[in-house]
Amino acid sequence: MNKFSRTMNSPATRRSVDEITGSRRLRRTRKADWSRRLVRENHLTVDDLIWPLFLMEGENRQEPLEAMPGVMRHTVDHAVRQAERAARLGIPAIATFPNIDPARRDETGSHSLDPDNLINRATRAIKEAVPEIGIITDVALDPFTSHGHDGILRDGEIVNDETVAQIAVAAVGQAAAGADIIAPSDMMDGRIGAIRDALDQNGFQNVAIMSYATKFASAFYGPYREAIGTGGLLKGDKKTYYIDPANSDEALREAEQDLLEGADMLIVKPGLPYLDIVHRLKDTFAVPTFAYQVSGEYAMIKAAAANGWIDGERAMVESLLAFKRAGCDGILTYFAPEMAELL
Ligand code: PBG
């Protein structure tokens, strides 16, 4: 054996030189910050963020939400200022959710059809002041119904087709107010096709549909229901229309159906507990896919951080990056302004 043969890559010499790892040391690329940055596979940018904003009636006011530290409900004039802030930070789009005056809520959510309801007034005001930001509006009926369900309640049943007919009209009203993207979160069957037809027939061919295609019957929506004032109203649960958290194939069927009906983009909701769904959807359909890091997910991180149990900022960054790694093109998150400031 000559001197040179010692350095050759024969299994025998490898074992003697580096017995423990066999020279396979993955830590080499992790040894320094520059090197970790060099091999980093996924990045979060401000372009990945969609900011959900809560609306309320009144003027020049905002109200803190107890279970969502740092999140407020805003009157329309205030929401305009938040939209300006979002645009300044480079956030591409906001998603609005109204807390409707209880006196305006009824069995069928009829106020959703009013061109001058809170959500439509906010859209018009924001569009006028901040035309460069995208506005995403939800057409589900839950903020407008006296029972907090996403559809029309008749004899103890959330009726599908009548609800679809109504939300298609509400969607046209939202588009007329200036919404760029309609995002139906109600999980009624056939809603995407009906909304697409209604938009097209009314000249809104350029208004997109971001479908909450896979929305699960989740416990993580608690703080949101408080924010829009449906928490105390909701009778029963939403299991007859949202997907069972045990199911994954069914989520694929929902997404496929919505895409066939004309959805431009998909949302998975909630977020972190459903990253497997994000991954399957992205792998299967290769369309723009988003996750909604919902109110309960935000509340958990904030609450643990407030107790000093976790580092809140690092948990925020890590959770948002996890969405990118799973295949998300973007994330609806209450952390949007905080994250954008950090970026
Ligand atoms: C209902 C709707 C929900 C959310 C947004 N729209 C869920 C619900 O209350 O059933 C949840 C958002 C969140 O928790 O952050 N259409």
Automatic annotation (TrEMBL):
Q: Which UniProt keywords apply?
A: Heme biosynthesis, Lyase, Porphyrin biosynthesis
Keyword match Lyase: yes
Organism from which the protein derives = Nitratireductor rhodophyticola
What InterPro entries does this protein's entry cite? Answer: ALAD, ALAD_AS, Aldolase_TIM
Enzyme kind, highest EC tier: lyase
Its taxonomic path starts at: Bacteria, Pseudomonadati, Pseudomonadota, Alphaproteobacteria, Hyphomicrobiales
What Enzyme Commission number(s) does the record list for this chain? 4.2.1.24
Tell me any Pfam family this protein matches. Answer: ALAD
Q: In which pathway does it act?
A: Porphyrin-containing compound metabolism; protoporphyrin-IX biosynthesis; coproporphyrinogen-III from 5-aminolevulinate: step 1/4
Write the protein's name.
Delta-aminolevulinic acid dehydratase
MF (Gene Ontology):
porphobilinogen synthase activity
Protein family membership: Belongs to the ALAD family.
Under catalytic activity, the entry for this protein gives:
2 5-aminolevulinate = porphobilinogen + 2 H2O + H(+)
Binding partners and assembly: Homooctamer.
